[in-house]
């Protein structure tokens, strides 16, 4: 209700921003890019599952906007437009790369998710910041185990071997870490 | 009770095994039983799944570099920029004159309607963000008024803060400095984000990043404020002074990041009130001197106050925008 987000009157601001892009205002374009980059990258990444393709898709969308700003009609919000463009571009690229039916089904589901995303992307940014803070707040050894497990995708046995501790200790750290973060994220 | 907690802890272990892909058939059954034992468990399970996914994404996000990516894109844009071709117009003079007349008429109307500066105001507990044409942004706290001329802004980046508090996040441009005007006092950005609070008696400036310059007042003084400094202008004497900023929470009203270092609960309550536009009441006088040591970052008052209550073992009662903190 009383939030510092820039969402109030986003429509008018978005129109202003588009007008600036049409006037080839590179500063504004840069600001928009940096503001939405991470979020859009993650949308693309969820489809492509590799860095180069995700980055390329986001770049292509922005190059198109820069070149064709005059033709762009934004119905709801710039953010919504960007997310939809990235999701569609990713989907098209996957289709071109000849996907199997099963995979395509999975991506269609993802597409629905992506379409639902715009409304709370600002919260998403906040959510990840909070997650990072919660992770940083764990005791050092516990954090290390959590990072090896989630970031490094190591199994419990592999973590135990790497740190020279028992599997039971690894599991205790993970249980504690997950639950602690969960509680501080208010997910329950 | 203790048994339930033990059960939960055991179940958390099963969920983690499931993430690893090492959950046994026996484990699958146990997990299913636990999930079926109450609807609450399903929510917890969902929470674990969200976290697992979230942590994986966090790792990817942390390695992303928006500035680096922009540099690459920026180069691509330069490469794809079409060359400008100058053409001699072939259309007849009449057409051009007609077009010119229409343009002049339109400009006249445009001038009358749009040349006046635009004013933006917020009500008592309202906050608002304004994005300027150059990508700079201004966050307005409650009871604040600013004005700027949208149509002169491109060549003349001046915003006047008439009253209240605002946080400025400025896209720096050496050739076209961003200036906040407050009658005889001017603040010029030298690459920056900063907070300005203006009352009838004084103007408080705290620099979050970069450098600003405060000019004016009766002595026409010029004070340079780097990040972390606090500048104070006294309307009565017209003097400008500077000191190290000791208020870590100066922009909490914008980003909702609150840091309490051995802070008395009575001060915590008053700050929460300012940041969230709510009223926090302490039920017992003895609570005033309770000490809080915490870093909080919550979008709304409810979560922040819940966490504080948990930390200090208090109970919360909510009534509209009013919170009552009491001993258990």
From TrEMBL, chain A:
This is RNA polymerase sigma-70 factor. The keyword Repeat does not apply. Residues 32-98 form the RNA polymerase sigma-70 region domain. Transmembrane segments: none annotated. It comes from Hufsiella ginkgonis. GO terms for biological process: DNA-templated transcription initiation. Belongs to the sigma-70 factor family. ECF subfamily. Pfam families: Sigma70_r2, Sigma70_r4_2. InterPro entries: RNA_pol_sigma-70-like, RNA_pol_sigma-70_dom, RNA_pol_sigma70_bacteroid, RNA_pol_sigma70_r2, RNA_pol_sigma70_r4_t2, RNA_pol_sigma_r2, RNA_pol_sigma_r3/r4-like, WH-like_DNA-bd_sf.
UniProtKB/TrEMBL annotation, chain B:
The lineage of its organism: Bacteria, Pseudomonadati, Bacteroidota, Sphingobacteriia, Sphingobacteriales. Residues 257-322 form the Protein FecR C-terminal domain. InterPro entries: FecR, FecR_C, Ferrdict_sens_TM. The chain crosses the membrane at residues 95-114. PANTHER family: PERIPLASMIC SIGNAL SENSOR AND SIGMA FACTOR ACTIVATOR FECR-RELATED, PROTEIN FECR. Keywords: Membrane, Transmembrane, Transmembrane helix. It comes from the Bacteria. This is DUF4974 domain-containing protein. Residues 119-213 form the FecR protein domain. It comes from Hufsiella ginkgonis. GO terms for molecular function: sigma factor antagonist activity.
């Amino acid at each position: 209700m009383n939030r510092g987000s820039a969402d109030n009157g986003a429509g008018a601001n978005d129109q202003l921003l588009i007008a600036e892009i049409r006037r080839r205002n590179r500063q504004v374009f840069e600001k928009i890019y940096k503001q939405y980059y991470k979020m859009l990258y993650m949308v693309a990444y969820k489809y492509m599952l590799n860095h180069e393709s995700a980055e390329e898709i986001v770049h292509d969308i922005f190059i198109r906007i820069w070149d064709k700003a005059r033709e762009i009609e934004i119905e709801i919000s710039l953010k919504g437009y960007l997310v939809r463009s990235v999701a569609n571009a990713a989907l098209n690229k996957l289709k071109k790369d000849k996907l199997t039916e099963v995979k395509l089904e999975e991506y269609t589901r993802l597409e629905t998710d992506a379409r639902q995303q715009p409304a709370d992307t600002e919260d998403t940014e906040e959510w990840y910041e909070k997650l990072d803070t919660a992770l940083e707040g764990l005791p050092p050894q516990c954090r290390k185990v959590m990072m090896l497990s989630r970031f490094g995708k190591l199994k419990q046995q592999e973590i135990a071997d790497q740190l020279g501790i028992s599997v039971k200790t690894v599991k205790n750290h993970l249980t504690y870490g997950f639950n602690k973060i969960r509680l501080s994220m208010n997910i329950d | 009770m203790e048994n339930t907690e033990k059960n939960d802890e055991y179940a958390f272990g099963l969920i983690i095994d499931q993430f690893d892909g090492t959950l046994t058939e026996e484990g699958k059954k146990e997990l299913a039983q636990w999930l079926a034992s109450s609807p609450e468990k399903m929510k917890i399970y969902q929470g674990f799944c969200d976290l697992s996914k979230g942590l994986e994404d966090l790792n990817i996000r942390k390695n992303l570099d928006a500035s680096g990516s922009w540099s690459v894109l920026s180069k691509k844009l330069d490469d794809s920029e079409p060359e400008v071709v100058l053409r001699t117009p072939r259309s007849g003079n009449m057409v051009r004159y007609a077009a010119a007349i229409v343009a002049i008429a339109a400009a006249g109307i445009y001038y009358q309607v749009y040349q006046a500066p635009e004013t933006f105001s917020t009500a008592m507990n309202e906050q608002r963000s304004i994005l300027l044409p150059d990508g700079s942004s201004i966050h307005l706290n409650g009871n604040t008024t600013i004005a700027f001329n949208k149509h002169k802004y491109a060549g003349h980046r001046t915003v006047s803060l008439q009253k209240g508090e605002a946080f400025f996040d400025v896209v720096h441009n050496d050739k076209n400095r961003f200036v906040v005007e407050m009658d005889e006092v001017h603040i010029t950005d030298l690459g920056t984000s900063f907070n300005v609070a203006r009352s009838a008696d004084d103007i408080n400036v705290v620099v979050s990043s970069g450098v600003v310059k405060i000019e004016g007042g009766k002595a026409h003084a010029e004070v340079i404020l780097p990040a972390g400094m606090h500048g104070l202008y006294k309307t009565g004497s017209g003097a400008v002074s500077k000191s190290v900023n000791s208020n870590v929470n100066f922009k909490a009203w914008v980003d909702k990041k609150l840091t309490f270092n051995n802070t008395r609960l009575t001060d915590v309550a008053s700050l929460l009130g300012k940041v969230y536009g709510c009223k926090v009441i302490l039920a017992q006088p003895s609570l005033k001197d309770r000490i809080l040591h915490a870093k909080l970052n919550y979008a709304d008052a409810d979560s922040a106050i819940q966490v504080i209550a948990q930390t200090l073992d208090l109970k919360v009662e909510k009534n509209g925008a009013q919170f009552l903190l009491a001993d258990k």
